[in-house]
Structure formats: structure tokens, C-alpha cells
From TrEMBL:
Coiled coil: none annotated. One of its GO terms (cellular component) is cytosol. The keyword rRNA-binding does not apply. This is L-2-keto-3-deoxyarabonate dehydratase. It comes from the Bacteria. SMART domains: DHDPS.
Length: 305
């Protein structure tokens, strides 16, 4: 990438068929649908891609299919999180060899009782950075149960060559983003927020320059970021008000299932299957989701029709 990445970098859902097998053609449709929504980049194999129910062989297949099909139309960020530093390095090298523009990693964890000390976390990211020459985004999310203090993040940004992007999803993310930007200075190339953009306006006030949402409706969320960064905070606020009911429903009621349900309704994918032990949404939650989505006339709801 020749310039810093900003804007909206949604997570691509991983489509399965009703029998639970990977839907390769559906994955290609997902990539196309996201690009048609005007995204600035696409992230694959993240938590909202159900990375925790995907085998290593499937992960390799999805990486190749996604990067080949995207074919450089937008940057692709490949999530490579793993507790094992060795496996994370292997994933990183493979992703870069296929043309990934960036890597995303959570800190190493395996339950709250098996978390390395700060130095081990630092060494984990440093080892991956030494193995590649593309940017690395650190995902700071409550899911890991790992505390990443700002001084540790700043140290990694300053000392580890490829660590320059950060996705903040912790409680009070805006305050942490503001402190990270203030203390890290020019070493913080891409301060991003996540969590389906539920805190986006506050995070923009704190200095973030982009967001990593689900892939459900980036075409509606992106103008919040672009308007704000262009200096039009009133326009950003109006876009925020328009999107907030659906953002809130997705974040608080649906989780990763929302995007797949909307994509199925719009013919992007054949099935909204989620692998066990995840369960489908209730009909009540689905009905409200689709009603809110229809009110916004989402591209994904008509993309495949």
C-alpha cells in the first residue's frame, strides 16, 4: 500500500452451505458484493468470519479463493491470530505469498488462564513482523481476555517494524484510542475502531481514521467516516443517526449472524448457516433485522436478485 489505509474495512463473512461445507462460489460473491458497496479494504478470516470453526485446510482455501478473486481490486487484510507463534508466522508468510496487503492479529491467548506476559506478547508480534514485510494490525478485543496497556502498544508501534495499525474494541475505546494516538504519534499509522461501529462517532472524536465493521452495510457506514475526516461533522452525525438502529441491533442482538442473514435474503449467498455450537437467530430477532435493513435499502438485500 502506497498510502495509509482509511475509511471502512469490513470483515467478510464465511459462507457455508446448509450442510456446513464451505461455499466457495458464495465466498466469491461476498467479495464482489463488498467491493460493490465501495469498501476501502476487506478483512477475511476474522472472528466475524467464524475463524474459530474453520479448519487449517479450509483457512488456506479461503485465503487463496479470496485473494485470487479480489485480484487487487481493493486491499485484503488476512487475520492470522493463533496462540502459537510458529503457526502465526506460517499463516503470515502464506497470506503474504498470495498477495495480502495487511495482516491482523489478536494477542496470543488460550483462555484467560493461558496468556503470556507482556514480553511474550511483544515477542509474538515481533517474530511475525520479522517474517513478513507488510503492515500488521493489532486487534485489541475483549474476546481474548488479554489486557494490552497503551504503553505496550506504543512500544510495539515504535520498535516492531511492521506494527502500525490498531483496531480498538475494548470498553471505553475512544479514551484508549486518544491516548494511543497522543503517545504513539507518527508510529500510529492506522487507528481504527470495531464492534460494528457502535462507538464510531466517539472514536472519530478521539482521532480514529477508519472502522472495521461487519460486511452487512458498509455503504451506509462509510460516509460517517469520510464526512468526518473531510471536516463535515454535521453530515457525519446525520449518517450516524441513520445507521444507529441497525448498528445497535446487529451489535447487541445478532452478532456475526446478521450479515449472513442479510446476504442470504439478498441472494449473495445461498445459506446463512453458522457452524455448531453457534445457533441461528430467533425468528423475532431476524424479523427485526430484516425490517431495519429494508428501511435502509441495503445493497446486499438486492445484490443477487
Amino acid at each position: 500500500m502506497k498510502s495509509p489505509l482509511t475509511g471502512i474495512l469490513p470483515v467478510a463473512p464465511t459462507p457455508f452451505l446448509d450442510d456446513g461445507n464451505i461455499d466457495v462460489e458464495g465466498m466469491k460473491n461476498v467479495i464482489d458484493c463488498l467491493i460493490d458497496q465501495g469498501v476501502d479494504a476487506i478483512c477475511i478470516l476474522a472472528n466475524y468470519s467464524e475463524q474459530f470453526v474453520i479448519s487449517d485446510e479450509e483457512r488456506a482455501l479461503l485465503t487463496k479463493v479470496s485473494l485470487d478473486h479480489c485480484a487487487g481490486r481493493v486491499p485484503v487484510i488476512v487475520t492470522i491470530s493463533h496462540f502459537s507463534t510458529r503457526i502465526a508466522i506460517e499463516r503470515a508468510k502464506y497470506a503474504q505469498s498470495l498477495g495480502a496487503s495487511m495482516l491482523m492479529m489478536m494477542p496470543p491467548y488460550h483462555g484467560v488462564g493461558l496468556v503470556p506476559a507482556a514480553e511474550g506478547i511483544y515477542e509474538h508480534f515481533a517474530a511475525v513482523s520479522d517474517a513478513v514485510d507488510i503492515p500488521i494490525m493489532i486487534q485489541d478485543a475483549p474476546l481474548s481476555g488479554v489486557t494490552l496497556p497503551v504503553p505496550l502498544l506504543v512500544r510495539m508501534a515504535r520498535e516492531i517494524e511492521n506494527v502500525s495499525y490498531f483496531k480498538m474494541e475494548t470498553p471505553f475505546a475512544a479514551d484508549k484510542l486518544a491516548q494511543l494516538i497522543a503517545e504513539g504519534g507518527d508510529h500510529i499509522v492506522g487507528p481504527f475502531d470495531g464492534e460494528e461501529a457502535v462507538t464510531l462517532l466517539a472514536d472519530l472524536d478521539a482521532g480514529c481514521t477508519g472502522t472495521m465493521t461487519s460486511g452487512m452495510f458498509p455503504e451506509k457506514i462509510r460516509p460517517i467516516v469520510t464526512s468526518y475526516l473531510a471536516g463535515d461533522q454535521e453530515a457525519a452525525l446525520e449518517h450516524w443517526k441513520l445507521c444507529m438502529p441497525l448498528i445497535n441491533h446487529e451489535n447487541r442482538q445478532c452478532g456475526l449472524r446478521a450479515c449472513k442473514t442479510v446476504y442470504k435474503a439478498g441472494g449473495v449467498i445461498k445459506s446463512d448457516h453458522v457452524r455448531h455450537p453457534l445457533k441461528p437467530m430467533s425468528q423475532r430477532t431476524t424479523d427485526r433485522l430484516l425490517h431495519l435493513a429494508e428501511e435502509l435499502d441495503l445493497i446486499a438485500l438486492r445484490w443477487g436478485k
